[in-house]
Write a structure and sequence with these properties.
Keywords: Secreted, Signal
Distance between the termini: 14 Å
Pfam families: C1q
Order of helices and strands: HHEEEEEEEEEEEEEE
Number of strands: 14
Oligomer: single chain
Organism: Mytilus edulis
GO cellular component, one term: collagen trimer
Signal peptide: 1-18
Largest sheet: 5 strands, antiparallel
Mean pLDDT: 81
């Protein structure tokens, strides 16, 4: 990756070229020096294109890719194979998580870290899956007895996600009534972050 100092060096070469070409144009040129002027013109064009690409590349690289969302403040039961709704956005750097359908769309191909926490309560069971374009990448299960109270369970997965692939949390096909809890400000949540681009 080119840093800011290198970018200024390239821009300095462009300015220096402009001053040097004026000096060359004020003297009589023979045939061999005309080739040098053409070469300098080509160099100036290449440096301008490179500087433009570097600026665009750096502006894209500066954008973080991170989201964190949680479920609303309510107890909810989900049926089998249902996408879990995380409608309360805590962070959405890069504006890449859709709170309406709770689906993340990958803006770049890379290796991502995903983590989700499910809060459930006594007598309830819960089964969830991390899906990337409808392929199960990881699962999380909990089944509680009657006198347990409130319990949070978490899962973390690291996986490759290609550009424009969709990622979401969905209930599995194990339980009919997946019981998601809300207790004293705590609720189920889902987060994801880009580790590195591929």
């Amino acid at each position: 990756m080119i840093d800011t100092c290198s970018l200024f060096l390239l821009l300095g070469l462009l300015v220096s070229y402009g001053e040097n070409t004026k000096a060359i144009q004020n003297i009589t040129l023979d045939g061999s020096k005309l080739v040098t002027v053409d070469m300098l013109d080509a160099l100036r064009t290449n440096l301008t294109n490179l500087a433009t690409e570097l600026i665009e590349h750096n502006s894209k690289m500066d954008k973080p890719i991170f989201f964190h969302a949680k479920m609303p403040a309510a107890k909810v039961d989900y049926n089998k194979n249902s996408i879990v709704k995380f409608s309360s956005i805590l962070n959405n750097d890069g504006d890449i998580f859709n709170h309406g359908d709770s689906v993340f769309v990958s803006p770049v191909t890379g290796v991502y870290l995903f983590s989700w926490t499910m809060l459930t309560y006594s007598g309830k069971s819960i089964s969830t899956e991390l899906r990337v374009d409808n392929v199960v990448k990881a699962t999380l299960h909990a089944s509680l007895g009657m006198a347990v109270g409130h319990v949070s369970v978490s899962k973390t997965a690291i996986c490759r996600v290609d550009k424009n692939e969709h990622v979401w949390i969905q209930t599995g096909d194990s339980y009919i009534g997946n019981g998601f809890d809300y207790d004293a400000g705590s609720s189920s949540s889902f987060m994801g972050a880009l580790i590195y681009k591929i």
